[in-house]
Design goal:
With 617 residues, chain A is an alpha+beta fold. Chain A is built from 17 helices and 27 strands. Chain B folds into two domains: 4-63, Helix Hairpins (Orthogonal Bundle); 93-192. In chain B, 73% of the residues lie in helices and 0% in strands. In chain B, helix 6 packs antiparallel against helix 7 (156-192). Chain B starts with a helix and ends with a helix. The chains are: A alpha+beta (617), B mainly alpha (193).
Chain lengths: 617, 193
């Protein structure tokens, strides 16, 4: 039996899982340090690429070369994303088709960045099994369109993975819950992740997981929660500390590093407020420390409109399934953002029943992907997922009107046939513009691709009869075939994906990915150690600026000596030396940290605290 | 190629046991879904893809009694089997006068703000039309469907025609109800702002 792993390629975190043959249960594969989540963050450094935890540690220090939340850019064009680009500290280049990022002195596409995350997971799985892993099931938001799915598949190919199936995240989650947890009935899966929202309504019966309807928003998630919180904090800081800001000539909003730290602090505060009613946010800034008590109620007021935006898609999905909330037997919560109490309350109000969340919402999608992988490998035969296409597929006709070929929520695989002909005598090429979406006009929908049917024999207008078959496969990805009926010969089709990569592009990227190989293990460890040293150095420098005067001169000198020693070691390539000096500096500053606590500056190493909290999630 | 009734081993009849249809759909899905043929030859995989797409299309066409009638009409008339509106909306002659009145109210609603009375009238009209639509649907999936099933081969074209007219009326009611709903919603949104 083939080994196929299940991968959740998330906006914030990614995971790899497999089904344990002995127990028949899906399990997450941890890394060498026992970490289960791999932050979906990629850092481009002069020495090479770092991914995951190491990249996360350099977020605040190398904001313009550290890419996070790239999932929001997958399969998208400049026009789609330009509105939110100002929140990203890395540079996204304008242009036709696929967006490109300018990072680490080169241009990369979102699938290439995702490929780096996928390769790290592939390596993690290979280390676990002690053998190559070449096949994977990868999950995507149910509401992802064709371009976004294709981009995910391309990312797999660039990473050297055969993506044998793209599975929708909410449906994957329902597989993870499985029959023994769900039983029979109608299930609503509410999936609010880092960057995307999905709602799927399923009927579970006799081992068949039949999706009745799905809806969502591919631009709504925890990132947006963090963003409103960040903007609110920014305003608050500017209002309360304008004197200091003016004095030091600090322009917060245009300082990438500060904005990044503020974003991380906002995220950490949001996470703490899911468990606590109030929390303190302490952030050492240029010449002062920002200190604020935040209550859950304050944050909920900010999040309310965002949470409300998830309810419309829920109602639409119910309507499409011809059901009312009372028909839903069980509600399942998926995605880290469903830890927010306000989200839980609103979901419970809408469906009128308390939602399920026994399985870890960060892991459940990967576990479900592993179950689907095991189904495909032939290891599970009593379960079958029947999913749907989330968006209507149509072609542009005269006057820019869309003629729908496959309505949304059609069970996949599905196909539609349509006849085309020529409008001019002797015409040998017919153009088709395929779009996805629910709007009447083609221009208001998502342009998927332009197809050119070529090699039509010259004939009077209207004579050729070209039968075009549009097939949406089990991945939710479109395949198009054309046949001239008179001759029965297959017409050649040239596909110009609007926001996708051509096969040639992907080939080139596969090759490039070898030349731009990830930093080797030694280099990578060195980068990580240096990053760790930098983090400590930054924090100490800030702490000294603020609490230095509280310390005896002797101690201060000791710290400064340790700082110099670490700086010197950091310039070299001796990893052990850097680590030792880092430890020394940490020892030397123990009292400093205590002094800061005593001075009611508790948590002055605010970002550090945020780091710890995110690790222990 | 077999028609969608044949996909499920059914005779060409409108009366279908929904639960049995679903069971058969699940069985056929288990037989043909590409998930269960991942390691088969390319030929078998292509066949599985095609068959499961067909099973899905057949289930979609037959599971809902109204969609089933639309499919039957297309099938009997020998038109290409494509999803979408097979029946052009047509105003029912018996309701013409009333419809004219509603259309007028709708035009007014589109043109400017609504007062309380006008909104109440529109709401009332919508409720009335919805009831009428439900009636039309019940008639189609009930007596008219039974009549077609029971008709002798020679009488079938007439029975089919009756179904077709009833569907056209229902489609018309649907568009007017949707228009009314849209107009009311637009005004509600304005009122909220």
């Amino acid at each position: 039996m083939d080994r196929i792993v299940g991968i959740d390629l998330g906006t914030t975190n990614s995971l790899v899982a497999y089904v344990d043959e002995r127990t028949g249960l899906p399990v997450v594969i941890p890394d060498a340090d026992g970490r289960r989540l791999l932050p979906s963050i990629v850092g481009f450094t002069p020495a090479g690429i770092v991914v995951g935890e190491a990249a996360r540690r350099q977020l605040a220090r190398r904001p313009s070369d550290t890419v996070y939340s790239v999932k929001r850019l997958m399969g998208r064009g400049w026009e789609d994303v330009k509105g939110e680009l100002r929140y990203f500290p890395f540079k996204v280049l304008p242009g036709e088709g696929v967006v490109k990022l300018a990072v680490g002195g080169r241009e990369v596409t979102p699938p290439e960045v995702s490929a780096i995350v996928l390769r790290a997971l592939k390596e993690r799985a290979e280390a676990h099994f002690g053998e190559p892993v070449e096949k994977a099931v990868v999950t995507v938001p149910a509401y992802f369109n064709d371009s976004q799915r294709q981009a995910t598949k391309d990312a797999g190919r660039i990473a050297g993975l055969d993506v044998v199936r793209i599975v929708n995240e909410p449906t994957a989650a329902s597989l993870a819950y499985g029959l023994h947890r769900l039983g029979q009935g109608v299930i609503a899966v509410y999936d609010l992740g880092g960057g995307t929202f999905d709602i799927s309504i399923l009927r579970v019966k006799d081992g068949i997981f039949e999706v009745l309807a799905t809806n969502g928003d591919t631009h709504l998630g925890g990132d947006d929660f963090d963003r409103v919180l960040l903007l609110w904090l920014l305003e608050d800081i500017q209002a309360r500390h304008h004197a200091e800001l003016d004095r030091d000539c600090v322009d917060l909003a245009n300082d990438n590093e500060i904005m990044q730290e503020l974003r991380l602090a906002a995220e950490a505060a949001k996470i703490r407020l899911s468990a606590e009613e109030r929390t303190t946010l302490t952030l050492p800034l240029a010449g002062f420390t920002y200190h604020r008590v935040i209550t859950r109620a304050e944050v909920e007021r900010l999040l309310e409109p965002l949470v409300a935006r998830t309810l419309g898609p829920c109602r639409k999905a119910l309507a499409d399934a011809a059901l009312t909330p009372a028909d839903i037997d069980q509600v399942v919560l998926v995605g880290g953002s469903t830890r927010v109490p306000l989200v839980r309350r609103r979901v419970q109000e809408l469906f009128g029943k308390p939602p399920h969340s026994q399985l870890n919402p960060d892991e459940v999608v990967a576990l479900g992907a592993a179950v689907q992988a095991q189904i495909l490998a032939g290891g599970i035969t009593d379960m079958l997922l029947l999913d749907v296409t989330p968006l209507s597929l149509g072609i542009e006709t005269l006057g820019g009107i869309v003629s729908i070929l496959i309505p949304r929520n059609t069970t996949i695989p599905t196909s539609a046939r349509e006849m085309f002909t020529t409008s001019v005598d002797g015409q040998t090429v017919v153009d088709l513009h395929v779009v996805q979406g629910e709007r009447e006009l083609a221009k208001d929908n998502r342009s998927l691709a332009r197809f050119e049917l070529r090699g039509i024999d010259p004939m009077p207008a209207g004579m050729p009869k070209i039968e075009v078959t549009f097939l949406i496969d089990a991945n939710g990805i479109l395949q198009v075939q054309a046949k001239e009926q008179r001759t029965g010969k297959a017409a050649s089709i040239e596909v110009k994906p609007t926001y996708g990569l051509t096969d040639g592009d992907v080939e080139r990227m596969v090759e490039d990915s070898f030349t731009y190989a990830e930093a080797d293990v030694e280099t990578r460890l060195l980068i990580e150690t240096r990053n760790e040293a930098d983090t400590v150095l930054t924090h100490v420098a800030r702490a000294l600026r603020q609490a230095g005067p509280l310390l005896p001169a002797e101690e201060r000198q000791g710290i400064e000596a340790a700082v110099s020693a670490l700086r010197a070691a950091r310039e070299g390539n001796d990893r052990d030396a850097i680590r030792e000096r880092t430890t020394d500096l940490n020892h030397a500053t123990e009292h400093l940290a205590e002094a800061m606590m005593d001075a009611a500056l508790k948590g002055a190493l605010g970002t550090k605290r945020a780091d710890d909290i995110m690790e222990n999630r | 190629m077999s028609d969608f009734f044949e996909v499920f081993g059914l005779e060409r009849r409108l009366a279908i046991d929904g639960a049995a249809l679903q069971r058969r759909f699940y069985e056929l899905s288990r037989q043909w879904h590409p998930d269960f043929h991942g390691s088969a030859s390319a030929d078998v995989q292509a066949r599985a893809l095609e068959e499961s797409a067909r099973v899905n299309a057949a289930y979609r066409a037959l599971r809902d009694p109204l969609a089933r009638v639309e499919y039957l009409i297309r099938l009997e008339e020998g038109r290409a089997t494509k999803e979408g509106a097979a029946v052009k909306p047509k105003a029912p002659p018996a309701l013409l006068a009333e419809m004219f009145e509603i259309q007028e109210a709708l035009e007014e609603a589109k043109a400017g703000p609504l007062d309380e009375a006008a909104r109440a009238t529109l709401t009332e009209q919508r409720a009335g039309l919805e009831a009428r639509m439900a009636e039309a649907e019940a008639r189609i999936v009930g007596p008219l469907s039974q009549a077609w099933d029971a008709a002798a081969p020679a009488d079938r074209p007439a029975a089919l025609n009756t179904l077709k007219e009833a569907l056209a009326t229902r489609a018309y009611l649907r568009t007017v109800v949707d228009d009314l709903a849209a107009a009311l919603e637009a005004h509600e949104q304005e009122a909220r702002q």
